[in-house]
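Dear colleagues,

As part of the handover before I leave the project, I'm documenting each prediction I ran so the next person doesn't have to rerun anything. This entry is a single chain, and its sequence is reproduced below.
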Amino acid sequence: MSEPSGAGPSARWRCRRLALKRADMEGVDMPPLMRIRLQRGLRAEQVAVAAGLSLSGYRLLESGRSVGARVATLLRVASALGVAASDLMPGLAKRPRGKGEV
């Protein structure tokens, strides 16, 4: 892939992201949050700003390295992406409930 002179790393990733089509994403192993974001054609920066998060905080969440995310944070990210919060964590929605759990 040839790049215009002076194109930095972000320009390269932007080109790769635009080249990635939905059909191509089926065989690619990536975190669910990243898949949803890319399907909607959004940059991580856009989602972070819309959700009121720092970019580094959003990237930690997207990569799955942020294990202590608050429910309010997940709701803001889901809203920024235009999906239900349960879409961000498919396994959680199907978890069997124990006695006394809501």
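The two ends are 52 Å apart (CA to CA). The first helix runs from residue 9 to 19.

All the best with the project,
I.
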